[in-house]
Design goal:
- This protein is an all-beta fold.
- It is built from no helices and seven strands.
- The protein has strands at 11-17, 22-26, 38-41, 44-45, 54-57, 60-67, 72-78.
- The strands form two sheets. A four-stranded antiparallel β-sheet has the order 1-7-3-4, with no helix packed on it. Strands 2-6-5 form a three-stranded antiparallel β-sheet, with no helix packed on it.
- 14% of the residues are buried.
- The mean pLDDT is 90.
Amino acid sequence: MADTALQTAPVLKLSYQTGITTSSITIPATPASGSKIILFKNKLMLREGASDDFTISGASITLAVAAVAGDKFDIYYMA
């Protein structure tokens, strides 16, 4: 029987606080192909999707409702 060890990429966490009103956040690295990101705004989990809370393209997250100064984000993803 072949060795089928599961290989996983590390999960990255980015904490970010907005200083201005913005509808876009750029993360340092594009998420791994086929992976999802988990995004919290002020400790509330947001839904990914065109008709939901945010979309992602490459390393750019676009929020459906703009964040205001002081909003806190926690972003988890695999790069």
